[in-house]
Amino acid sequence: MTKHLSTPLANSMGIQDQVSFHRTELAIILSLYGRMVAAGEWRDYGISALKNLAVFSVYRRTAEVPMYRIEKRPKLRLQQGQYSVVGMDGKVLRRGRDLKQVLRVLERKLIRAVD
After folding, report:
1. Nearest 5°: phi and psi at 102?
2. How does pLDDT run across 91-108, given as a tens digit for each residue?
């Protein structure tokens, strides 16, 4: 039995492991994104897969700074939780292990009083 810790071809080509969102995680995020677009709150998004984290950025307008960043940092999964929502000012609004619970901080913005 042989164990392959890394792929020699991938490492020799300079391809590094990247953190990315899984399909189920993206389904949860895009579901919230669709509701916020329908409410007129959000208009654009961007996804980044970096070496240490994956970021889903939300924009009100395309040429702006992101309103919110939904980040996945697998190295923090045992301490504070791997998911976090970061505001425009860089302040962490919520952090945890369950993505749905973390995104609730953004869903509160959908609830409005009806006149």
Report:
1. -65, -40
2. 999 999 998 999 999 887
Long-range CB contact pairs, 27-36, < 8 A, 24+: 28/99, 28/100, 28/103, 29/56, 29/70, 29/99, 29/103, 32/103, 32/106, 32/107, 33/58, 35/107, 35/110, 36/106, 36/109, 36/110
Q: How do the domains of the chain map onto residue ranges?
A: 17-110
Q: What pLDDT digit, counting tens, does each position of 51-65 carry?
A: 989 999 999 876 678
Tell me, rounded to whole angstroms, the distance of Cα 83 from its chain centroid: 7
Residue with tokens 């009083």: 113
Confidence (pTM): 0.76
